[in-house]
Every structure is written in C-alpha cells, then in structure tokens.
Design a protein that fits this description.
about 300 residues, alpha/beta, Rossmann fold, six-stranded mixed beta sheet, three-stranded antiparallel beta sheet, 8 helices, globular, disordered N terminus, disordered C terminus
Length: about 300
C-alpha cells in the first residue's frame, strides 16, 4: 500500500459459507527484481489467518504462499473474503488470528513496495482531481512525509499513463472518464508507485474486452519482471486464460494451484456452492458467472455507484 491521498477511497467485504480446505500449491521461480524478499521466501505469506468484521467472520484459517513473479487470481462468490484478503496483505485491516508476512516483514513493513487498487465502487468519482494528479499519488509513498513530487516523479507518472494508453487524458477530471478508462488510470497509479507487489481488487470487472486485454498485458509484463500480482476477479475465463495461478476462496481456502484449475467442475462446485451458473461451451469447458453485487460495507464506509463503463 502506498501512502497517498486516499480520502476519496473506501470499501470492504464480509462473510460466506464454509468450504473444505484443499491446497495444491504451485511455485514460480523468482525473476530478477529488487532484493527485498529473503532468498527463497514467498513475497506474501498467510499462516492460519482469520479475519472478521465485528462478529461476522470474513476469513477462516487461511494459509497461502505467493512467490515473486506470480500472477495470481483470487476467485470465489461474493462475500467469500476476496477483498478482505487483499486488505489484510495491504495492512488496511488486521487479522483476528494468524500471521501475515509481506516481503519478509509485517504488513506495512515495506508499505512503499506495495500498491493497492480498490474496487471501482470504493472510489468517489466526483472528487475534484485530474487524471495526472491521481497517477502522481502513486509516488507519494516513495517521497516521504511533506515532500512534493518533482519532475522525475511526474515523468514516471506520465510513463505509467502511456503504458495503459491514457497519455492524452492527463488534464481530464477523473469523474469524466468511462469505467474502463478509470480502471486504466488507477492501474497507472499503481505502476507509478514502482512496487514489488500489486494487490488489485477486481481490476478488470465491468470493462470492455479490449481494456481487459490491455490491462492483463500490463499485469503479465509486471509478473515477468519478477513482481507479485494478486488480483480478485469474477471473470473465470480471464482467470483461466490470462493468470498463472488461482486461489479458490469461500471464507476458507478451497484450493490453490495452476490457473487451469478454474475449469475444474468439482472445485467450482466446492467453491461456489449454490451460487453457480454453469454453461457448457463448444469445447466442453465451463463458463461460470457469479454476477457482481455489493456486499454490505463495514460501518463508516461508503460505496459510490456508477453505471458508466
């Protein structure tokens, strides 16, 4: 998580039914990148982690290890704890039990090396800020308290905007953009932070096919560069085709392994239970659609709704 102006960002997620734990771990060889994670260690590790909002259990005894160079999709029904998992790793909330290690330290121990992208509904799009200002916010965690972005920081922000195809929108107010353009801009903000870990909450939800492909190309390039990318998604076909690994979550960790497990009928049934719409396609594969709806936000948080895509 970067320290930046986040007064227009909010959002969390509560609970879901139990599912049996089955872990099928897959590791990727780390690529060359800044040497922060101890040699051979996961960049992100959860050990028997549980989390709750008041009396409502959101995650139950979750253990998961993610290594540098991973491109991990976190999937599961609404209320399964996907957003909660990302917030725990980002250090935005604390577990009720268990241990979380991020780059070999506690969450927030290397806050400037972690970029967190919230759900679109957690952003106040009427906040008076331009595209360039939003992306430059990604630099604040590296500047230190009280320091202002300089020419080098603005150059990094401009390159990030160019990477996501939004270089011509620098002066546009963020609320004037379409849903897909907003997701591009927020990914650019994460890129501008130059992190080792990306925590992305539904980065490709509700965007057109071209935007989805473009954003996934960027995330895949970051993973190839040795960065750790963890993203929640409701798009099971995208998870199977564009991610390297998948973590099946329904309050408990049902399974963790290669992304093609997303097409496993039994794992989908174990993860989604009765919230599954399964359709056979021409190749005998499965298309699963858990249509997006909002979980109850924790007390004191607001969700901002917008139908524009």
């Amino acid at each position: 998580m970067t320290h930046e102006r986040t007064d227009f960002i909010a959002g969390m997620e509560p609970s879901a039914p139990d599912a049996p734990v089955r872990v099928d771990a897959m590791s990727e060889a780390p690529s060359a990148v800044r040497d922060v994670t101890p040699l051979g260690r996961p960049s992100v590790e959860l050990q028997s982690v549980s989390a709750a909002y008041g009396q409502r259990l959101a995650l139950d005894d979750v253990s998961l290890a993610v290594r540098p160079g991973s491109l991990l999709a976190v999937i599961g029904p609404n209320g399964a704890g996907k957003s909660t998992l990302l917030k725990l790793v980002a250090g935005l909330i604390k577990p009720v039990s268990g241990r979380i290690s991020v780059l070999g330290d506690r969450p927030l121990g290397h806050a400037h090396e972690v970029a967190y992208l919230p759900q679109a509904e957690a952003v106040d799009w009427d906040f008076p800020v331009t595209v360039s200002e939003v992306v430059t916010m990604g630099r604040y965690g590296r500047l230190g308290l009280g320091r202002q972005p300089g020419p080098g920081d603005r150059e990094i922000a401009a390159r990030a905007l160019a990477t996501v195809g939004m270089a011509d929108a620098e002066g546009v107010q963020i609320g004037a953009l379409s849903g897909g353009q907003r997701r591009r801009v927020f990914l650019a903000r994460a890129l501008a932070a130059e992190p080792l870990i990306y925590l992305l909450d539904e980065p490709v939800t509700g965007v057109d096919a071209r935007t989805q492909e473009d954003l996934m190309d960027v995330l895949e390039a970051e993973a190839r560069a040795g960065k750790t990318v963890i993203a929640s998604t409701h798009d099971l076909i995208c998870a199977a085709q564009r991610f390297h690994e998948a973590a099946f979550l329904n309050r408990r960790l049902v399974a963790h392994g290669p992304a093609n497990l997303v097409l496993d009928r039994q794992l989908l049934a174990d993860t989604y239970g009765g919230h599954v719409l399964v359709l056979p396609d021409d190749g005998g594969r499965l298309i699963l659609d858990d249509a997006h709806h909002h979980d109850d936000a924790p007390r004191g948080e607001r969700h901002y709704h917008d139908d524009r895509r």
